[in-house]
């Protein structure tokens, strides 16, 4: 199985991993590693640090999966661990840097490559101005595709709070990006 592919029969793999099956956990790792690493890279904007945090996430998951219950939402659980790792790093470092897009994203048809870089840079700068909780909700929703209910569970907040934070982030980003266009 290649990296980043969905886990076949995920419930069975999770159950095996919960019982200590290392091969089952390796399947989880190979499937989720690319997305977790990409998410953490966007959160910390440093490839080496994101790699270190990604390893920490999977080490924590490996140690804790045996204590999880049946019906585990593996994707949400792993992203919760990743979000907590990134936020802990930011609290320790007092740095807030967000990179919203993967560097490997394909250029959309009709986009000029130079303009795409400018747009990415502007969006990254705008995301840095947001409160961390809003940026996390926005990235988990817009980039990772989590529902507000899942985000609420992951961050320990109500789904309505996750929706509000994401909405406020979108409004702030739109306002910041419009003001940047007006200056050009």
What's the helix and strand layout?
Layout: H1 10-18, H2 22-44, H3 47-64, H4 74-93, H5 113-128, H6 132-143, H7 148-155, H8 159-183
Q: Can you walk through the features of this model?
A:
The chain is mostly helical. It has 2 domains: 1-97, RNA polymerase sigma factor, region 2, helix turn helix motif (Rna Polymerase Sigma Factor, Chain: A), CATH 1.10.1740.10; 105-184, Winged helix-like DNA-binding domain superfamily/Winged helix DNA-binding domain (Arc Repressor Mutant, subunit A, Orthogonal Bundle). Helix content is 71%, strand content 0%. It has helices spanning 10-18, 22-44, 47-64, 74-93, 113-128, 132-143, 148-155, 159-183. Helix 1 (10-18) packs across helix 2, helix 2 packs antiparallel against helix 3 and helix 4 packs across helix 7 (148-155).
Run of helices and strands: HHHHHHHH
How can the largest sheet be summarized? none
- List the domain count as a whole number: 2
Name of the CATH homologous superfamily of the largest domain = RNA polymerase sigma factor, region 2, helix turn helix motif
Quaternary state, please? single chain
In CATH terms, what is the architecture of the largest domain? Orthogonal Bundle
The mean pLDDT is 80
Query: Helix proportion of residues, in percent?
Result: over 70%
Query: Using DSSP, what is the number of strands?
Result: 0
Rg, nearest Å:
17 Å
Ends distance:
48 Å
Keyword list:
184 residues; single chain; mainly alpha; globular; Arc Repressor Mutant, subunit A; Rna Polymerase Sigma Factor, Chain: A; 2 domains
């Amino acid at each position: 199985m290649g990296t980043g592919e969905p886990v076949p029969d995920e419930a069975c793999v999770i159950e095996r991993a919960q019982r200590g099956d290392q091969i089952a956990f390796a399947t989880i790792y190979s499937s989720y590693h690319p997305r977790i690493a990409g998410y953490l890279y966007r959160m910390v904007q440093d490839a080496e640090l994101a790699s270190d945090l990604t390893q920490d996430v999977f080490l924590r998951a490996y140690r804790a999966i045996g204590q999880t219950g049946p019906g585990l939402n593996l994707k949400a659980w792993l992203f919760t661990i990743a979000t907590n790792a990134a936020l802990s790093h930011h609290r320790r470092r007092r740095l807030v840097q967000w990179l919203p897009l993967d560097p490997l994203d394909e250029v959309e048809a009709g986009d000029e490559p130079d303009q795409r870089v400018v747009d990415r840079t502007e969006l990254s700068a705008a995301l840095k101005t947001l409160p961390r909780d809003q940026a996390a909700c926005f990235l988990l929703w817009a980039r990772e595709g989590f529902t507000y209910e899942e985000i609420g569970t992951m961050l320990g907040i109500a789904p309505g709070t996750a929706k509000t934070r994401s909405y406020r982030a979108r409004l702030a980003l739109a306002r910041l990006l419009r003001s940047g266009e007006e200056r050009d």
